[in-house]
Task: inverse folding
């Protein structure tokens, strides 16, 4: 039985990972979920975990070094999966500071705690040797590579060229994790995944925002010409890939994760309209995102060939099921879309319509 520290486990992807660990891998892991419960963290995503004997929730900040020390020693952590982050590009353009604090400083605090608690000899300051079986996974993003032209794919050796404060902060965190491996020998992996969709995604992101607006017959704000391309992956496939890396990943390596599923934004929006039987007249082209990356697409050959992972969901069935989930969970959606969300929406989209 391993004790895994999942950070950001109350968010969209982290909560899917926690549910997966508790429900589908019984008896394998104890799960300690550390989450600051920012606007994006929601314990409603984890109702299923609440009474599970192998699950503990701690409300706290990954930048809080003394809390991290207590958690590592009390729960004898063997693995860290670092999902905790400020994750929305538009918010990083509005106010980058929190992205630097959580995504960079927070990752470094976690790396320091792991390095301290996992090393075999406490007087060995550098080039430490670590307990067997420990692992730190830095959950990163394809956005660290910047944008692609009309052809080509991101491979693990594509140079980093992030364009937004969000992706720059994630690239910094990746480099720190890799540096802790190269300098101190810490057993880490970095995963770089493409755009996720699925249940429980906060409706600031493209797909749930469009679903929510459709359900309320509100205009669908498409940035610029809508021809930007994203490579979509169902969140459950992302979590399976992280599990494969946790179990079989080679220390110090980067694994790209993606669904080979490129769609333009306008294709995605039209697919949602079609499923919900709403008119295309709801589409509203608005001011583009500054520094908007035109295209992301992942070459996932390494994780497929070396770790035997492959996505199980197709976009067509995945988007259908996702919309169905939002329809069946309107209460979740309505609670999430509260006063603070309305303020955010007005700030973000009021401006774009001017
Ligand atoms: P999210 O915004 O839904 O969740 C982030 C979680 O982190 C929230 O629960 C929040 O409360 C928590 N958090 C934020 N700051 C914290 C702090 N200082 N201390 C502790 N907890 C904190 O994000 P997500 O979409 O689930 O993304 C999870 C991770 O996956 C992120 O690192 C993101 O960069 C990465 N990622 C996301 C996608 C995607 O499409 N959403 C794709 C690739 C990679
Ligand atoms: O690629 C992985 C990344 O995907 C993750 O690292 C990020 O955490 C995640 O937020 C996501 O970033 P994007 O910027 O690609 O996702 P977002 O849902 O914000 O936007 C997807 C595309 O849709 C992008 O081209 C911008 C466009 N868009 C988005 C919104 C919210 C619109 O046209 N209108 C909108 O209202």
Result:
């Amino acid at each position: 039985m391993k004790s895994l520290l999942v950070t950001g486990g109350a968010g969209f992807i982290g909560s899917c990972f926690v549910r997966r660990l508790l429900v589908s891998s019984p008896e394998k892991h104890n799960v300690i979920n550390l989450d600051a419960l920012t606007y994006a963290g929601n314990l409603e995503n984890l109702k299923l975990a609440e009474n599970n004997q192998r699950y503990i929730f701690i409300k706290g900040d990954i930048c809080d070094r003394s809390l991290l020390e207590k958690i590592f020693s009390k729960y004898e952590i063997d693995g860290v999966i670092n999902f905790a982050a400020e994750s929305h590009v538009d918010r990083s353009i509005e106010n980058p500071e929190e992205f630097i604090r959580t995504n960079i400083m927070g990752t470094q605090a976690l790396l320091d705690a792991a390095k301290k608690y996992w090393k075999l000899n406490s007087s060995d300051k550098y080039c430490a040797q670590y307990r067997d079986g420990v692992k730190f996974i830095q959950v990163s993003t394809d956005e660290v590579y910047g944008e692609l032209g009309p052809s080509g794919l991101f491979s693990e050796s594509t140079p980093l060229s992030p364009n937004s404060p969000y992706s720059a902060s994630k690239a910094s965190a990746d480099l720190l994790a890799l540096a802790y491996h190269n300098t101190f020998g810490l057993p880490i992996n970095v995963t770089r995944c493409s755009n996720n969709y699925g249940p429980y995604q906060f409706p600031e992101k493209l797909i749930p925002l469009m679903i929510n607006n459709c359900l309320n017959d509100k205009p669908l704000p498409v940035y610029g010409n809508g021809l930007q391309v994203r490579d979509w992956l169902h969140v459950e496939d992302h979590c399976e890939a992280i599990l494969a890396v946790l179990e079989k990943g080679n220390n110090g390596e980067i694994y790209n994760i993606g669904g080979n599923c490129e769609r333009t934004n306008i294709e995605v929006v039209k697919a949602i309209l079609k499923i919900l039987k709403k008119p295309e007249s709801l589409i509203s082209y608005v001011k583009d995102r500054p520094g908007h990356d035109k295209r992301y697409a992942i070459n996932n050959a390494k994780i497929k060939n070396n770790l035997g992972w492959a996505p199980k969901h197709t976009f067509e069935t995945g988007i259908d099921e996702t919309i169905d989930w939002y329809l069946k969970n309107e209460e979740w959606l309505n609670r999430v879309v509260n006063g603070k969300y309305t303020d955010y929406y007005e700030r973000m989209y009021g401006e774009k319509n001017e």
Observations:
- The first strand starts at residue 2 and ends at 7.
- Residues 97-118 form the longest helix (22 residues).
- The mean pLDDT is 95.
